[in-house]
Amino acid sequence: MTHPRTALMLALDEQVGPTAGAHGFEVTRPRFGSIDRRWVRRNAVGDVAVVEVAATAGPSEGDLRAFELWIAVTPEPALARLRQGQSESVVQALQHSASLGMYTAVLPPPGGEPTPGSGSWWKVPEADVAPEVAAGIAAELERTGWPTLTRLLDREALLAQVRSGDLGNRTTASPRVLAGAEAMLLADRGPSPRLDELIAMLDEGVDGRGRPYAGVATAFLRARAGERAPARARGARAWFRRRHKGARPAG
Question: Are the CB atoms for 71 and 145 separated by under 8 Å?
């Protein structure tokens, strides 16, 4: 007899796979045991959109007949930050993970609530209902998932989403989190007064234990912005360094 989990995956391959391809998403092989299916799309600047169907403990401990439907968008700067100080195996495992998303949401079944708890679970008690559940997932992705991900793969739209204070229903959008997200996106545009303001906000009020991590994060933002400064500005700085190399201090 086919296990409900297996039946759902087969039904998803049949009902979601072709639609995902039509929206530019490719199926990938997850490296985590609880992730059953994952579809990924990248834009021209390396931002990643993800759809995941993940088994969850469900109503009872160890029940793998309940699943969550995740969508997420991770901008390329966040992936670059991940690559700092991480092993290649960790990077490979996490680079397509919805848990890394700047925008992260769970899409519930009809009548469910998009919050942790039974309302967010897609339940497959028996293999026979798997096609029906897969059809519901396909419909929810068509209604909400694909349009949201396609929109947020535009960097301007993602920035507007961050500035609206909405990072999805699985992210706590505190002022500090929003400042970090906006700074991550603005760093790709080069130095700016707004980026300086956001970095100051991230540095402000950090206690002794968190300061080393905050320092690494803001150093990354400054370096990223410097790398993406306009070519003319970079050239002017290089000329200034060459012009004054070896110059003795006045007096």
Answer: yes
**Rounded Cα distance, 182 and 227, in Å:** 18
- C-alpha distances (whole Å) from 108 to each of 23, 35, 115, 150 are 21, 17, 8, 19
- Distance from C-alpha of 149 to C-alpha of 145, rounded to nearest angstrom: 6
Distance of alpha carbon 161 from alpha carbon 121, whole angstroms: 26
At how many degrees (to 10) do helices 211-227 and 175-186 cross? 30
pLDDT tens, position by position, 111-126: 777 665 556 889 898 9
Per the prediction, the chain carries an average pLDDT of 83
Residues 6 or more apart from 46 whose CB is under 8 A from it? 76, 79
3-state secondary structure (DSSP) of residue 218: helix
